[in-house]
Amino acid sequence: MKRFFSGSRGPLDLFQRKGLSETLATPGPHETALTRLFGAEGMRRRSDGLCFQTPLVVIAFTNRSGSNLLADYVRQGKVAGPAGEFLNHDFVTKHAREQGITRLPDYMLYLQTRFAGPAGALAIKASWDQLAMLHRTGLTGMFPEVRVLHMLRQDVLAQAVSYVIALHTKQWTSKHAVEQDEVPFKPDLIEHVAADFHQANLLIRLICDATGMRRWALAYEQMCHDPATHVGNVLVPAGLAPKDWAPDVPRISKQAGPRNAEMQAAVLARLRAVL
Description:
Elements (H helix, E strand, L loop, with lengths): L19 H6 L3 H10 L17 E5 L6 H10 L12 H11 L4 H12 L6 E5 L1 H9 L9 E7 L3 H14 L17 H25 L2 E6 H6 L1 H4 L1 H4 L22 H17 L1
Parallel strand pairs: 1-2, 1-3, 3-4
Helix pairs in contact: 6-8, 7-8, 7-12
């Protein structure tokens, strides 16, 4: 699936000259494309009743935060299904056309039928603007509860470097082949991306606080160091894994290499020079 520029707004135009309220009120690119696909009326529910008896699990993420790793652990909990970027407009359009779906709520019914886990819970990945779309269109009301797992990286500069490298190489996970080896150093882009990641995480938190969605925060660094404790301490109380849950070896591996460290050091040196 396409990342960042299609999955959310681009790093150079996310928040320029906009306050938080205006930013939250502005539909993202996926919501805009889906409104063209379904029409304004087709985006919203026709009734207020519950459609499902199980919660909706949302992995709220910014790119390169470790959300695919968390999705692997959620799958291992055997309550929710495998979380994908099911709200990306290209994915929605493909499946809606194949299934003859003409309304977004009917698409959610399709997702529940096809991708729910062993205990019936549907898991999806969502950027902040997709999370806002779920609330704005009333889709969260189809479920008795929404449980948001907010995937964070404490080292946002390292995250931004990882994103800029992946943007160039097209290696979004360890399973993808590298298309281009030589990665140019673009400090301005790295700085913009890091700042935007910070604000995107703030917006995820504010959306949850404003709407009453339950949110659990997970740190990528701690998840890598001790998944049994850090992930287990979230999945078990969130009802997404049994009390004796223990993680298996994940299907994906860490990607960072020497080039990541070189770029991060160069950005820090640049920042020191202007202090």
